[in-house]
Amino acid sequence: MSAADLEVLDQQLEVQKEAVRKLKANKAPKDQVDAAVALLKDLKTRVEALEVTTKKAKFDRGAFEEVMRRRFFFNQGFEIYNGVAGLYDYGPPGCALKNHWCALWRDHFAIEDGLLEIDCTCVTPEPVLKASGHVDKFTDLMVKDTVTGDCFRADKLLGEVIEGMLEDRKLPADQRAHLEKLGRTVDAMSAAEIAQNMKALNVVAPETKNPLTDPYPYNLMFATQIGPRGDNPAYLRPETAQGIFINFKRLLEFNNGRLPFGVAQIGRAFRNEIAPRSGLLRVREFEMAEIEYFVNVRDKSHPKFASVAELSLPLFDREHQLGDGKVIATPLGEAVAAGTIANETLAYFLARTYLFLVKIGLKAHRIRFRQHLATEMAHYACDCWDAEVESSYGWVECVGHADRACFDLSHHSEFSGVELSAYEKFEKPQQQEIVELVVDKKMLGQQFKKDAKLVTDALEALSKNKDAALAWSAAAAASGSAQLALADGRSVEVQAALARFEKKTKEVSGASFFPGVIEPSFGIGRVIYSLLEHSYWVREGDDEKRAVLSLPALIAPYKCAVLPLMSQDRFAPFTLRLRDLLRQSGLSCRVDDSSVSIGRRYARMDEVGVPFAVTIDFTTIEDDTVTLRERDSCSQVRIPIAQLSSVLQRLCDGALTWANVASNFPAVAVVAE
Question: N or C: which end of the chain has fewer CB within 10 A?
């Protein structure tokens, strides 16, 4: 049994889960439900057994990475200068794969969900990232080798040590349970907790075995300067989201002032990782695909949630992370109703992410959604879930989903002085309690002169916080004056006779508010790396093992190969004709008319993930037909050239399956490749 068999069983398992759910929902007879449940349990047992067998045949990461380098999917940047850690170049197949990924992502999210799309600059002035909190808090915890000065990311190093200890089969059950729980919570540990556990487990520098410093925060942003004077500090953006928040006012106007709406952006981001490793999984320059979905904070329902409410996702919630470590398949409707997932919009995007990841070829049984522990989340966040994908490096976060509340827009409004709010019109006018600023402008101007505007602005800003304004007014009345903080950092004393706040009630037809934000954030490189690992397998041949990338046709770098049977002049006109025919039909193809055997040329294309190969042979010259080969099964059919591009287009779009093609065209006897 192979990984391909596991995928078939996994698909059957998902179908059976849905069948059981429908039977229960429709209150089918008990014997029918019991039979369906028995089949479901049998499939689960078979999947679990095959997973164990598959894992025993350990993934050969060295062989996989050799294929990636040899076929130039990606490679370390600046290789001829000994390379730079954390920087990677995509070669032709990797670039094509990434472009197809982005196109599919746009179709799946931007088009289907009606998102707006923008493209913002990478260089970001310091005040923007000061407002967002990145200047002060965008850090990872770092430890150093006390002798060599080598740097390590503290949580990752601790996690690797725990994983190594868990490989000991003789480990007592209580110690194993303790270490497993530590491993599940290491990402949420504080600096003090990491230091405590490192000392308890005697963690030292991996290579030198030297002692390590205590963990301390290290800011991950790349600093730069705008202009030649050196007085305008900036950073390369660590995420694409801030450009969307900065442009919120214009985006809201473009959307005719209506909520909810979403904005998408695909672009580069930069993070000066402490110890980049693991191929494309931890890098310093990478591409992200992010969505900021703006909602009324009082209504986080989603108009399309009903379409995904019955979809079951593998949820790894806080309770199970801190408890038995189990991942539970849960219908999203139930998860929202129980409060496990905070709201419909967040759950909707979890579903959309899952459907996208499966569509592009990730294995469903190797995807889970892990909820952030309370100690992991930013103080302003309501709920966060990571789509994690299992690879040879373990479970890796590939897509983050966060309910960021209204933190971003409110902070950029405060720091920039530009209102980034939306307006809600009430169905009926409402009575609202407000505070009104009463100021003696003449006396205030005489006392503060050139600073009068700064003082007035500070008072008006204070009026937006009703409780704070009334408290200030009461303090001024009690003491005759009160201190007032100005925007430039100074504080001045304002006499009670000059300004006060009065509580009033007025009828209002609407109100301004800061929208909340639901954010799915995709690390494109991480998803692509995981997809490549999931697609990789080795075909056993008579004389050698040959690598195959079983990438789905819709995302494969090249859709088809054009291969003359032999390198002979009589085949050349057909080769050129087919190449042009396919490319003009929008089908990317690779031509290989080299003199090596046809079997070796098939193997080359299999390694690049090309799903179909067209072979020109002697029969082609006689009747204008070619053979069409399917990559995973190696089966072939004979097809007229006149029908070739139409059939291939429908295969690549998913409108046709290979089984459809095999039943409609004559099979070709295949000689062992």
Answer: N
The domain total for the chain is 4
Write out the two tokens for 66. Answer: 């050799």
166 located within any domain: yes
For 390, the enclosing helix (H) or strand (E) is strand 383-391
* Residue that finishes a domain, picked among 196, 219, 242: 219
Q: Are residues 493 and 562 in the same domain?
A: no
d(CA 392, CA 369): 18
Same domain, 567 and 622: yes
Residue tagged 């050129």 (tokens):
576
Residue 258 has pLDDT above 70, yes or no: yes
Tokens of 484: 């007032």
pLDDT, residue 52, reads: 55
The answer to the question of residue 62 being in a domain is no
Distance separating alpha carbons of residues 90 and 86, to the nearest angstrom: 13
pTM of the model: 0.83
Cα gap 531→499, rounded to integer Å: 64
pLDDT tens profile 95-123: 999 999 999 999 999 999 999 999 999 99
Query: CA-to-CA distance for 242 and 246, rounded, in angstroms?
Result: 6
Q: Mind giving me the DSSP string for 480-529?
A: SEEEEE-TTS-EEEEETTTEEEEEEEEEEEEEEEPPEEEEEEEEHHHHHH
Q: Indicate the length of the chain as a whole number.
A: 673
The whole domain housing 33 covers 3-57
Structure tokens that stand for 55 in this block: 């894992």
544's tokens: 């050698």
State yes or no: pLDDT of 51 exceeds 80.
Answer: no
